[in-house]
Design brief:
7-stranded mixed sheet, mainly beta, about 0% helix, 4-stranded antiparallel sheet
Length: about 120
């Protein structure tokens, strides 16, 4: 699976963005998809996960109620809707994929495939 993330940008606090991650390869539709983020000087952390068919999702407590993950397998795309953005959401956002069975695994090393990252900057 090859992944291409897009949709980042500069937004004021309280604003919204929608990130997209387009995948290629026949295994995309059977893969767990996730979004991680990494702020300067911090470790990469899990933001959200979605199962292959969208039946299961996970959103980190820090963004719960503000971020939503979804996917469209017909378009080989996973989305992350970011609402009510805060300056502390500023980070590079990465999409990731794993062919493992559904599990909420926060460890980046457990994901085999990664996109190149898209920068989200939230100004106060």
């Amino acid at each position: 699976v090859q992944l291409q993330a897009s949709g980042g940008g500069l937004v004021q606090a309280g604003g919204s963005l929608r990130l997209s991650c387009v995948g290629s390869g026949r295994t995309f539709s059977s893969s767990i998809m996730g979004w991680f983020r990494q702020a300067p000087g911090k470790e990469r952390s899990l933001v959200a996960l979605i199962s292959w068919n969208g039946d299961y999702t996970y959103v980190a407590n820090s963004v719960k109620g503000r971020f939503t993950i979804s996917r469209d397998n017909a378009k080989n795309t996973v989305y992350l809707q970011l609402n009510s953005l805060k300056p502390e959401d500023t980070a590079i956002y990465y999409c990731a994929a794993t062919a493992r069975p559904w599990a909420i695994d926060v460890r980046p090393g457990q994901y085999e495939y990664w996109g190149q990252g898209t920068l989200v900057t939230v100004s106060s």
